[in-house]
Batch of 2 targets.
Target 1
Amino acid sequence: MNITNKEMTHRRHIVLLPGDGIGPEIMAEAVRVLEVVSQQYSLGLTWESQLLGGAAIEAAGVPLPQATLQAAQAAQAVLLAAVGGPQWDRIERAIRPERGLLALRAALGLFANLRPALLYPQLAEASTLKPEVVAGLDLLIVRELTGGIYFGQPRGIRTLENGEREGFNTDVYRESEIRRIARVAFELAQQRRRQVLSVDKANVLEVTELWKEIMIEVGRDYPDVQLRHMYVDNAAMQLVRAPKQFDVIVTGNLFGDILSDEAAMLTGSIGMLPSASLDAAGKGMYEPCHGSAPDIAGQDKANPLAMILSVAMMLRYTFHEVAAAVAIEQAVGQVLDQGLRTADIASAGQAICGTRAMGAAVVKALQDQRSSS
Ligand code: NAD
Ligand code: IPM
Ligand code: MN
């Protein structure tokens, strides 16, 4: 690849994609946090905003404009809020907001999606599960992100001879795709509690029978990591029955999408779950696991913490700025200690704050950390 002058001078450049719904609201808070840590830790970061999703459809007619794709390819990291909304659910399928996001993940080769479900102890009461079931929860879902049924061909809705319509998709994984996500999971487990759970439906689906076989094969290279297997239906059940039995959960695109929303609820709210989507070289796109929450958009109600914690993941995984990442994570802990709660993480009777107040409190906690150190 040619390194242009622009890339040379922008070696720590980030593309921001605020997207739709609550996206711009939570992105504004993330940027405030980014400004503060960038200055405090002299990170030398630069950033620019680009359009993705519904916002891009309105401005440019397509969900992933060329300018956005080029900027994302040239940048070292991408920070995405969320895309989509009911106003774009009925437009031509190929140009819906979600297709823009999927195309961006594919174009950037972001095959490894890391979704850490970590319960802040202050939120044990906020979970819909009993505190003793979730207290101390710390699991990591490693979701394959550029393959499986999300991308498999053929796909579509066709009309049969009798006039009835039929929808169809293809779940497909190559050995090489399974092998590379397996390695990510095993290597991450080596830095954690050395346990990998591979989730499949090998009792029914051939594609996941191969998945399981390759997981076992790759697992032989990591004798220090314990490998277990579970069918996805049981895994969904175990996640709410006894989630602390899990360390790293590795699974395909669709199962990972579903299990990560389920895991989010263990942490109190989907508004708490950040994610990192990485390519083979560690370049990443960082985004909360939740969507654009159209039901609360524009009302200063969204929890910005998953977005803010995605900034921390970006600093850790792409920029290797561990101190700055830890500072953000601790600041989030401090605002929770102070009792700040958006509606999604408030227990009965607790005072509720808005998106902006939550973001401002994180910024203040960061400033206080520095002045007291
Ligand atoms: P959603 O995650 O947007 O919302 C589900 C529920 O969680 C809603 O009640 C919402 O209010 C709540 N919620 C989500 N994020 C929250 C936050 N930060 N703070 C407080 N509450 C929050 O999922 P959905 O309703 O199924 O989808 C809405 C739109 O978002 C759809 O168009 C969907 O395709 C899109 N979506 C986008 C992404 C993404 O961009 N990565 C992810 C998921 C869904
Ligand atoms: C997610 C979302 C996306 C997915 C949609 C919006 C395409 O649900 O990031 O979890 O299914 O991957
Ligand atoms: Mn999802």
Note: The chain has two domains: 1-122+269-373, 138-266.
Target 2
Amino acid sequence: MQVSEQFIKDMPKIELHLHIEGSLEPELMFELAQRNEIALPFPDVEAVRRAYDFSNLQDFLDIYYQGMNVLRTEQDFYDLAWAYFERIAAQNVMHTEIFFDPQGHTERGVAFETVLNGLTSAMQDAEDDLGVTSKLIMCFLRHLSEEDAFKTLDEALPYKDKIIGVGLDSSEKGHPPSKFANVFAKAREEGFLIVAHAGEEGPPEYVVEALDILNVDRIDHGNRLLEDAALTERVVAEGKALTVCPLSNLKLCVVKDIHDHPLKKMLDLGLKATVNSDDPAYFGGYMNENFLAVAKALNLNADHLLTLTRNGIEASFLGDAEKSALFDRVDAFAQKAAA
Ligand code: ADE
Ligand code: ZN
């Protein structure tokens, strides 16, 4: 039986793949541009939204890096993250693990500390005032050099207690995980957990490298691993989670049509898939919209949806006691929904 829209809205959710810079809504972009006296190349928010028409990942990244230029002060980063937390709290997201791209800011002269302080203040307030918990994952931009990534890792070391993990994002094709083997080895030695975008646009071999060379704890996207049956079997056997982003895949033409999305196939194969929003301000939706789109297009039932949310808890970087409390909340929801 297909689930109702209300079931999806009410279901407790976990987000594990969210670029905080990708939650910058055009309205806030204009507000920050005005506050920081920055001229935008768009006359109004409608024109910004009209520009969000992408043929591939690079098309999007060009506009995404341009958008983050309005973020300058600690208050800007606070406001960005707070706006995201308010939205997801209203969507029953219990916990989120947030990516940030420090190199997108430090290369513009914004200090690492400015970014971190703004984000972590909002995270604390979100926990205190909205009851949403969160963790922070620092991503290296893969179109830059490994040397640049090492510099960023060094800058992060004094704040190690505030950053749970290290990830890899930006232009995938031509920038395989192996390019960053040394810096990820150092990050792992320093105690960071590891994730990497792999198999979004890049080939299955990049997923193999993420597993074998970077030693990832989760795979971000992972769509293209399905092209390799032996790799699929391996990822199932290892129980490694995939942070799948349906509306992102649609907007970046990773899938042609939402009805072609492989999420249900992933679940049927026993892959530990989760649903996430990636860059919600650019891709037309936060967690509810992503769940609604796939539930409708792929005819997902309540069990599928509960599995997706439970996979999120299991794959999160929370401790066992915290996970257990979240599982209880999902169980309580499931029981009430079935009654
Ligand atoms: N940075 C922000 N969103 C991204 C995505 N979907 N893939 C790679 N890098 C990104
Ligand atoms: Zn992403």
Note: The beta strands are 13-19, 93-100, 133-141, 165-169, 193-198, 218-221, 241-244, 272-275.
